[in-house]
Amino acid sequence: MQSSDFIVARDDLPQCKTIVTELPDAGGLPAEALLVKVDRFGFSANNITYALLGEQLKYWQLFPAPDGFGIIPVWGFGDVIASRHPAVAEGERLFGYFPMATHLVIEAADVGKRGLRDAAAHRQGVAPVYNAYARVSDDPAFAGRQGDQQALLRPLFMLSFLVDDFLAEQAHFGATAVVLSSASSKTAFGLAHLLHTRRKDIRVIGLTSPSNAAFVRSLGCYDQVVTYDAVGTLDARSRTAFVDMAGNAALRAALHRHYGDNLVYSGRVGLTHQDGINDKEALPGARPAWFFAPDHIRTRAKEWGPGGIEKRLGAAWQDFAPRLDGWLTITDARGPDAVRRIYLDTLQGRIPPDQAHMLTMAA
Q: Mind giving me the DSSP string for 142-181?
């Protein structure tokens, strides 16, 4: 059997192509392994972040590719078409981290009623969430457009949820306002929604481009929307926390200089610009620091116990998800050519903020 894999050059992301790789047939699978057909997956600027941080955060090692190339991980759905595990039947539907490909072999381990783990050697050493697959065959929350919303936004909303929880745990570092860059991004407006609905004493400010300003204002979860060229109009007297979803070094420096010591937190969460990864410039205010979600997950898992994170995240998602139909239009596309086009449009920032894509590699 063969798989069609979409690969990108690790040091030149616009260079991309589809290749064919050989897969074992059902009889040739390792013991307790599954052969999964990747059905559909969400793709957004968040996946570009995975590519930009592929080396640093080990995303490239999850799905091996030829030297110099990588396969970008995506959240989506797959169907088991062959199984050598006695507790997993053919036809089961899984939700989790997949390659941009038509097929994946999963070495199933820790199989339980609700999920399983890929124990392949090359996938170890990353955060456990990236190797976990939910068994969702009979779960209506993962069917239809609800399922698409899960693939496109649930992992991003989990990041929003974790950042909100982290900031609240730190009493927002004494800030009375939180500024979010890339305010039109899904992770940013998820966080803005949480701050707006749960932290009534915090003013939520969104930074965005002029072309996205109307969309950001329409969301209703930002108290103020400011374009990037107008950051100098922000009230520099208020103690402010900055959550950087863009990774734009020039913007970060401008905000630090504008607020000075009143910038009490500067956290880097996403990276949609391709600069500033190794920015070492000394800036006034709080020192920029990465927020790495798996570290916070480990902390909360110990404190909240089994199921604690999922219970709290689920409650937050139930409040957030009904709003998505009015915020996003989800488009389906299939085939390598469509995947390549949408990948390049996303890489170059050509996707409008009110559009989202569910993709299938198979033609």
A: GSHHHHHHHHHHHHHHHHHHHHHHHHHHTGGGG-SEEEES
